[in-house]
Design brief:
145 residues; Glutaredoxin; 2 domains; four-stranded mixed sheet; 6 helices; 4 strands; membrane
Length: 145
């Protein structure tokens, strides 16, 4: 759990330190802008922007029941963030597994990617797809797919 918050905490601490330096130099406007930018980066890189994650075992069980894809991701991954943001509201229809929280999920990703923890790895109908196009993932959610 703590590992997922390291990057966001670093953004908050760095932003606070830089903003404090700007305030001490007499630039409160610049400080506010920088702090806002760093807080935005922290929020986007936090686990909060992603739908609730579940275990790999639970995700695979649910996917077998409802046919929805499973997304293996990790906080701080820009490709995961791109997928999440481009999916918009439809992202909550997918089953999300944080590989930093779930060792079985990390093992599944390594098995699909020649031993590498390359994310996002999206599993559709039992077949893994590494860093797929968000439009393609959205198409997998449509009733005709």
């Amino acid at each position: 759990m703590m590992r997922a918050w390291i990057l966001p905490m670093l953004f908050v601490l760095s932003g606070t330190a830089i903003a404090t330096g700007q305030v001490l130099k007499g630039n409160p406007g610049t400080a506010a802008g920088l702090l806002l930018a760093f807080l935005t980066l922290a929020g986007v890189n936090s686990p909060l922007i992603f739908p609730k994650t579940i275990s790999a075992e639970e995700a695979q069980r649910r996917s077998a029941d409802d046919g929805r894809p499973v997304v293996f991701w990790r906080p701080g991954c820009t490709y995961c963030m791109r997928l999440r943001l481009r999916l918009g509201r439809s992202a909550r229809l997918l089953h999300w597994v944080n590989i930093w929280r779930d060792p079985a999920g990390a093992a599944a990703v390594r098995a699909a990617n020649d031993g590498n923890e390359t994310v996002p790895t999206v599993v559709v109908a039992g077949r893994p797809h590494t860093n797929p196009d968000p439009r393609w993932v959205r198409e997998q959610l449509s009733p005709s797919a």
